[in-house]
Amino acid sequence: MVRILAFFTGLAFCGVMLWSLLWGVIAFVSEPHVESTAERFHKEDKHLSLASDGPFGHFDRQQLQRGFQVYKEVCAACHGLQYVAFRNLADLGYNEPEIKKIAADWATQVPSINPDTGEAAGRPALAADHIPSPYPNEVAARAANNNAAPPDLSLISKARHGGANYVYSLLTGYEKVPANLPEDGRPGQGLYYNPYFPTLNLAMPPPIVADGQVTYADGTRASGDQMSRDVSAFLVWTAEPNLESRHRTGWATLIFLLFGTIFAYLAYKSIWADRKAKGGQETTSYSDPDKVGPLA
Fold it and tell me: Which of the four, 37, 121, 204, 265, has the lowest number of CB atoms within 10 Å?
């Protein structure tokens, strides 16, 4: 009885699935997709070529330091890096005194507790601290940004489709609103038109507004495009700080497996080649008791 019930239950389940599939096909054929305004005006990400691209990718330390400078002077006012500690900047080429100074001079203090009163307070950052968010919580972040909380940028190049290409396109993609843009796609109050953003409009104003907004310590000309490239490269590092060691480990593993496979094949040929050659001649059948010799 149980098997019969299970059979009919499964049959009913399959019937519902087939009906849903058939209904979906009919709806797809009879009701073709209507392209929305966002889909029609959305642009594909620009291509950004970085030294970290590809299986042999590595970080350009000078570019990462420039990108960090852009983040510190332009982006840090709204975005945090909660998964990056100040001491991690040693990977970019900063020495210990420089890291301590960067942490101590950081505009946002690290949340702490006043030991005398027990009340919330702030203190200068230490090298061991993670880079703090400029807002104490999400409510404060939304209140300061037209109800749109700025995302943490630690993993932004991994969290967004397109990675560094998306970040670079977004930073350089602010445009004037096209005259033929329908009303449902036009930016509302406090929004800015950017065709590289999925909904075309975002609450973040253009962060990079002019050439020379940052004065690079290495003397590189800080054009808007250069600053966008550098900070995009820096955000690749924040999301994948172990990229170089991962590439080295991967290539070492591939080389080990290649040689291991070659040696295993040579060992196979050396040990079993003569036995395979004799295998066609020595066809003694152990099913015939007359041909079976003594065990000892």
Answer: 265
How many CB atoms are located within 10 Å of the residue 246 CB? 12
Sketch out the chain's domains with CATH numbers: 41-80+133-244 (1.10.760.10)
**Tens of pLDDT, residues 136-171:** 899 999 998 888 899 999 999 999 999 999 999 999
Best CA proximity match to 201, nearest among 170, 236, 162, 232: 170
Q: What is the 3-class SS of 146-164, one letter each residue?
A: CCCCCCCCCCHHHHCCCCH
pTM: 0.80
CA 51 to chain centre: 16
- Using CA atoms of 234, 71, 143, 146 in order, give the dihedral in degrees to the nearest 10: -80
pLDDT band at 22 (very low <50, low <70, confident <90, very high): confident
Q: How far apart are CA 231 and CA 82, in angstroms?
A: 17
